[in-house]
What we know:
heterodimer; A: alpha+beta; Rossmann fold; CATH 2.40.50.140; 2 domains; five-stranded antiparallel beta sheet; 9 helices; disordered C terminus; B: mainly alpha; MetI-like fold; two-stranded antiparallel ribbon; 74% helix; globular
Amino acid sequence: MSYLRLEGIDKTYRGAPSPTLKGFGLSMEKGEILVLLGASGCGKTTALRIVSGLERQDSGHVVLDGVTMDGLNPERRSIAMVFQKSLLFRNMTVAENIGFAPRLNRAMGKAELRRKTGEMLELLHLEGMGGKRVTELSGGQEQRVSLGRALMAQPKLLLLDEPLSALDAGLKWTLLSHIKELNARLGATMLYVTHDQREAAAVAARAAFLHGGRIARCAKPYEFYSRPESRAEAEFFGWENFIPAHRDGARLRCALGDFAIEGAGPGQGRALLCVRPEAAENIGCGRLRGIVASAAPQGMETVYEVVCGGTRLRLAVSARHAFGAGEAMAFDLSPHMMWLIGWAEGGGGDGAGP
Amino acid sequence: MRMGARARTAILALAAAALLLPLAPLLMWSAATYWRWPAAVPEFDGGYWPRLLADGRILPALGNSLILSASVALLSLALAFFAAKALGTRNFRGKRLVELLLLVPAFIPQIAVVFGMQAVFMRLGLYSNFAGLLTAHLVFYVPYATLLLSAVFEGYDASLEEQARTLGAGRLRTALHVTLPAVRSGIIVTGVFCFIGSWSVYLLNNVIGDPRFKTLPSVIFPLVSVGNNSYSTMAAAVIVYILPVLAALALASRALAPEASPGIVRNRGLV
């Protein structure tokens, strides 16, 4: 039986036109890091708040380690949470913040608390900073203290709600490696929410995609990138071109021509061809011909809008090639960066994977 | 560039001098009956102090005023706290109207309502006693404290409480260890303002408190009125009147010192 089970959770906020969560279900194992992914406003934070007890679900159950959490106040759940903001207690030092939970619960004596706090500071690479006021810390240090404070509560489950979104890129990757290290060394079970796909791929072995108030799919992060199962999922993971097509097994015909899609399983009929922007290759000598409608330089690459066979494509091309509006561009599309999903209007569709 | 310790001390000394020097003539006058030109200092003979201390009305009135103003400050804070928190941290329909209504006691002159209050308080048995005067003061100072504290809570992040609860703190512990320390400065300032405001009230004390519950303003103000031409009397009376206010300010400034905040948790036994 799974360590954490979320079963059929519904939540509609008062005055909201539609439910935020509808039949939301998820399970995870002890010691695992699972990333909950989804677009902004899709209900990720609501899901975490329901698990933590800060919000009550309209129906459904939260079961942790075999115990039903429904109706329990947050302080009785043994579920700690790290928020987007570090939310450190300004009237306490770094060490006092880290030792907040054990002191409250009188879970350990003073000497043991001092030792554990020292160990945690070391784990967080904050040695010698225990006596500092939290106002003296940088953003990254604050978030590390917040993480350490939550882990010192020795929770059965640690919820992380976009904890790194306010940090700059370099710091984010450093802290992601710290989180993985803490997970490996302490065996903490972590449910990590983010809207950043790259963060998800960096931190977790398994991700769950939340769409339409429920988990649309649970898979390895790479699978979301390479083999999306719906248009919403594809859009979220950076697929930008969707072309109506007719398929016959792995062969398909669309406005751009005929293609063979690697890995596509059996199936016939209408489908949606998904093409990643970075699929363009053999620039200047490919078999496809398009007219550049616009160009947006973005440093190392330029994003072109190219009209090809009556279809408008967004293609990211190395900045070495320069095309102006109205110029012709020859290119090919890499078969590794094309995928087929079932035909569906208005997003969503049946998986067409093998 | 960081200010040097000496420069900081000098500025503090200047500020203290600017605040306290005007009190020097008062102090000197209070201890002298005569101070005639061209003498640089008066002839110190104890001035009005012996008579003031012997006056059987002053010390009881001082005690009454201290108890009244301290009670007003504490009760205003207690009664205003949750309303101010809701006003400061939440948005709800009619919030602006509530804020406007809270301003009413501050804008309507006391004289416009005090005689009406007197009639009602007489019928309720709240005339000329501590409970009555305290209630009358609270009518004005609870809204005042609510407004001041709501401004404090506008800068308060209520997510801190959610954070504490997910770390295992119940509602009471969250309030004691997280909410109160976070808004401590605002609470102290609001309390001091309520104390000083209540301390200075004259009309309400005269109409609702007198004659059986005398406060310091009721006893002191006649001594410093136009008809009294003894500077010594006025100086001694004014000093008695302002000393508790200065003491309250000094206590507040000490409690507000930045280095006082991190230790407060340790001092309260959390660590």
